[in-house]
Amino acid sequence: KSMKKIFTYTFLLVLGVITLSYAQEYTFDQAIEQYTKLDLKQPVPEEDGRIQTLNRKGAMSPQLDEATTQFIEFSQDKKVLEVGGAYGKVMIQVLKKYPNTVYHLNDLDPRHLFIAAHQAKEYNLADKALKNIKFFAFDITSPLQIQERYDAILMARVLHFFSPTQLDAAISNIFHLLKPKGRVYVIAITPYVKRYESFIPEYEKRVLSQQEYPGYVDSLEVWLNKPATTPSQQAVISDEPFMFLDDNVLRKVFQKHGFNIITCKMVGLSYVSSSWSLDGRENVILIAEKPGHTGD
């Protein structure tokens, strides 16, 4: 029995070490080197301008939304992090306008970061802006081994890929990574999209029954509106669990983790899409602040 206990303890200890999210860090030059070495290419935009990710985790939006625009303005001469930043579109917009901003770009797939570095190089950003870039590949839902602290964090079209447990973990990590008075900017998908409109009656029934996460589904395939989705689009849809979010759910979960809510509302798309556009409630945005004094 004692040997069994020792084995179990050792296994759990090793498992705990494995599951810690040790961030892979890359300088701008290192990311460019990897881009060339791996011979990477950014995917061709779809008809509505969206650019698919390489790991089947959604797509980069062609137009800036309200929350992202406010994040850009707040970022002036600050230290910021973008979680799930894909190919670096927002990063380039920030550093083009505010080259003194320290910008850390995160993504689960490091290939996206390498392409983002190439995009920044092609855009001819100022040298001082390029020196302010760092790239981090890590999972925001895992225990973090990161010492950085930020004035602002952007999470655009990321949270809906999480389970309820992962959502809690991600928001807890975001709270930890922010400085006092730091702000988080969130954009996520609601059920009110053409591609999954058959889910809306089920979602609204769950809301009436007061389910904590009414938008959580085990598979998207069941609810897919195939006539509104091309075969090529269907091919890149992940069959992993997904969570449609709304203003009530986001507000409650961020408040639970200690954030002060600045704004939280459902909004329309910032672009027109035959696959996504429905009734002007396709996205939900949240801007929240970590309490405290800047001197804490």
- Helix percent reads 25-40%
Uncertain runs are 1-21
Radius of gyration: 20 Å
For the residues shown, what is the average pLDDT?
A: 89
Percent in strands:
15-25%
Cα shape: globular
Biggest sheet features: 8 strands, mixed
DSSP helix count? 10
Structural class: alpha/beta
The assembly state of the depicted protein chains is single chain
Terminus-to-terminus distance: 49 Å
**H/E element order:** HEHEEHEHEHHEEHEHEHEHEE
In brief, what are we looking at here?
With about 300 residues, the protein is of the alpha/beta class.
Note the main attributes of this structure.
disordered N terminus; 296 residues; alpha/beta; two-stranded antiparallel sheet
Describe the structure.
The strands form 3 sheets. An 8-stranded mixed β-sheet has the order 1-6-5-4-7-8-12-11, sandwiched between helices. Strands 2-3 form a two-stranded antiparallel sheet. It has a two-stranded antiparallel sheet with strand order 9-10. Helix content is 35%, strand content 21%. It is globular, with a radius of gyration of 20 Å. The chain has 10 helices and 12 strands. The longest helix is centred in the N-terminal third of the chain and has 18 residues, at 2-19. By secondary structure, it is of the alpha/beta class.
